[in-house]
Write a structure and sequence with these properties.
The complex is a heterodimer of chains A (380) and B (252).
Chain A: H1 4-20, H2 24-41, H3 47-50, E1 54-57, H4 59-63, E2 76-83, H5 93-105, H6 108-113, E3 122-125, E4 132-141, H7 143-152, H8 157-160, E5 164-166, E6 183-184, H9 186-196, H10 198-211, H11 221-237, H12 247-257, H13 264-276, E7 285-286, E8 289-293, H14 297-300, H15 302-322, H16 327-337, H17 340-353, E9 366-368
Parallel strand pairs in A: 2-4
Antiparallel strand pairs in A: 1-2, 3-4, 4-5, 5-6, 7-8
Chain B: H1 10-23, E1 27-29, E2 36-48, E3 51-63, E4 73-76, H2 98-106, H3 111-132, H4 144-156, H5 162-174, H6 198-205, H7 210-226, H8 233-249
Classes of the chains: A alpha+beta (380), B alpha+beta (252).
Chain lengths: 380, 252
């Protein structure tokens, strides 16, 4: 259904995003590591066990949009939430964060892995050969926040019910048991993201079930597009990306424009066109926490807005090359957006397996023709 | 009274594309140097009265820089449509008489509207022709000048001759800020404009396509002067004087 030239670009992007994925071994190791930490923190007889301490992923690991680090020596960064069902007012932020630290220190393993305190979370750094670290964010449920999201913003239950209060050692009320807590809604964001691709996910699920594809390898074109855009940004900024566009912004934008397309190139066309059409002073809210305006941070750091617009322009140029149908320009776009090794590996895999019929084309739209006009022409 | 149609920004064109793409997922935004371009596959099932057809064509839609003042131009890029079927020499699809296209397009100036109201019926018409071997029920215009004369005569209604038709068109073109309701109607009826072709003239004027109208007038004149048998003797001199007027005042 795609034009040949787009079908080719689509196949290549498909293969490339396979290369961008976190390797299977890494995924499995990360999963088993964080599950162990979760078990340890809320082990039978511990303080956290009585309060249902649970660990879960947030961020790109949860969304299925994680990519290999751009720099081979860089770690994978797995973001986790450790939620304890304690009502607000029982503990201060400090108490909670401190109790998590204490529990980690009780383990011979985690004591060695534990890194100096970060503003919001505890970090466990695994050995260099494993190349990843876990960021554990202590949190408690925040019922008031959930009600606020539900009532003030009319967010659906799935988006509001898991709202959290989190710890932040730079917060004014950090030591105050009765003080306010910083708010965060990572699960709500995850559910929003899923809702944006639900229709496509349901369609793919059938095919994936038959092929017995493991859960983490199941990717919708939206997840692919997010991965591609993130890598494009990383390639543009390399290691000096202090003000580079944040992943959360890229993810939110891509998901907003996604319309359950069945292939990467169509989804990318929408995302790039939409992003490119943004005004220079656009505002972006967190769809799962509308009080949080992602772009507000740019007011204090105008460089961030400048850099976003620069990335936006570069993205459009590279996209123009990609869809031009001209092989030199396509190659140029590929090397601008992805590491050389990734492109080569993907191209190699593609020639070996050939073009896969991975795209399941959708039902056709329907048009009722009313009052058509007569075609006309000049005879030659 | 002069209506001006604003050229929309890149942002608005892009948003119109997003709307179009919601329905036609395989149309891809393809940036080009001059204006915008959308290219890809249009695949749908369409129905006219009780005839349903499956339609699948590869198309390119060029959107000019001054869109929507100027409408998009469509090409069929899959070599499925016979070149003899309503196309210009450069492959541009003749969706209809330009003025008629604008008439349709101006009522809903969106890309989705353009595709649904103009491109899809054209493709349906071709598919119909290929499937059943006859032209679609809404038939087609004759080629060249006769097609234009047919269209404009049908539009204005009650026009007695080609030269009167040309006068009506010229009246519409030169009509700017001043509209004199008590002028005699250019159709030659002897009535005041306001009691005769006023609505038709103003409606056509509102499309802001003076250049296209003038082009059509010149085309008709040049063609009928080649075949003056279409005209009576007095008409020929009438048309020649109109041509002289145009050459002197309108063409620079």
């Amino acid at each position: 259904m795609l034009l040949d030239k787009y079908a080719k670009a689509n196949d290549l992007l498909e293969a490339i995003s396979d290369e961008l994925d976190i390797p299977e071994s890494m995924y499995k190791a990360a999963k088993s590591h964080y599950e162990s930490v979760g078990k340890w923190l809320a082990q039978e007889g511990t303080y956290f066990q009585q309060f249902n301490g649970t660990i879960f992923t947030q961020g790109s690991f949860m969304l299925g949009t994680m990519i290999r680090p751009y720099d081979e020596n860089q770690d994978y960064d797995i973001d986790l939430v450790f939620r304890v069902d304690i009502p607000k007012g029982y503990l201060s932020q400090y108490d909670l964060k401190n109790k998590v630290e204490q529990r980690l220190l009780e383990s011979n393993v985690y004591r060695r892995l534990l890194q100096p305190e970060k503003q919001r979370c505890w970090t466990l750094k695994y050995s260099n050969s494993e190349r990843f670290h876990l960021d554990i964010l202590p949190a408690i449920p925040d019922v008031d926040f959930a009600v606020h999201l539900n009532e003030s913003f009319k967010l659906a239950k799935e988006l509001s019910v898991d709202a959290l209060a989190i710890t932040d050692n730079k917060d004014d009320h950090y030591y105050n048991r009765h003080g306010m807590w910083p708010q965060s809604n990572p699960l709500g964001f995850g559910n929003w993201f899923k809702s944006r691709m639900e229709e496509r996910y349901t369609i793919l699920k059938e095919a994936y079930d038959i092929q017995q594809v493991p859960e983490y390898k199941r990717k919708t074109p939206l997840q692919r597009v997010v991965q591609i855009l993130k890598r494009h940004r990383d390639m543009m900024y390399g290691s000096n990306g202090e003000h580079k566009p944040a992943s959360i912004i890229i993810t939110t934008l891509a998901a907003s424009y996604y319309n359950n397309e069945d292939n990467i190139i169509s989804a990318l066309s929408r995302a790039v066109t939409g992003i490119n059409a943004l005004n220079d002073d656009f505002i972006l809210k967190n769809p799962a926490h509308p009080d949080e305006i992602f772009t507000d941070k740019w007011n204090n750091e105008p460089e961030k807005r400048v850099e976003f617009n620069r990335w936006k322009a570069q993205l459009y140029r590279d996209y123009s090359d990609l869809v031009s149908g001209d092989s030199t320009r396509i190659q140029k776009a590929m090397y601008s957006a992805f590491d050389e090794s990734v492109v080569k590996e993907a191209a190699y895999n593609l020639t070996n397996r050939g073009s896969t019929p991975s795209v399941l084309y959708d039902n056709k739209p329907f048009v009722q023709i009313k009052d058509p006009i007569k075609p006309y022409g000049y005879s030659n | 009274m002069v209506t001006v149609i604003d050229v929309v920004t890149h942002t608005q064109v892009a948003n119109e594309y997003l709307e179009l793409n919601e329905k036609y997922k395989y149309l891809i935004w393809t940036p080009v140097k001059d204006g915008y371009c959308i290219e890809g596959t249009i695949s749908l099932s369409a129905q006219h009265r009780n005839v349903s057809l499956q339609i699948e064509y590869h198309v390119r839609i060029d959107i000019p820089k001054d869109y929507p003042r100027t409408i998009p131009v469509c090409y069929e890029i899959g070599n499925k449509i016979e070149p003899s079927y309503h196309q210009y020499q450069n492959g541009r699809l003749c969706l209809g008489v330009d003025t008629n296209q604008y008439m349709k397009f101006r009522s809903n100036q969106r890309l989705l509207g353009f595709v649904n109201d103009l491109l899809i019926p054209y493709l349906f018409g071709y598919e119909y022709f290929v499937t059943f071997g006859i032209t679609a029920p809404w038939s087609e215009e004759r080629h060249n000048a006769p097609g234009l004369v047919d269209y404009y005569s049908g539009y204005f209604e009650n026009v007695s001759s080609i030269s009167q038709l040309l006068h009506l068109l010229m009246y519409t073109i030169v009509l700017r800020n001043v509209y004199l309701p008590n002028n005699p109607c250019p159709c030659g009826s002897g009535k005041h404009v306001r009691l005769c072709h006023k609505d038709k003239v103003l409606q056509l004027r509102k499309l802001c396509i003076g250049e296209i109208l003038l082009r059509d007038v010149c085309y008709i004149i040049n063609n009928i002067l080649l075949e003056p048998t279409m005209l009576s003797e007095s008409e020929v001199s009438n048309v020649i004087s109109l041509k002289t007027f145009i050459d002197k005042h309108c063409l620079t």
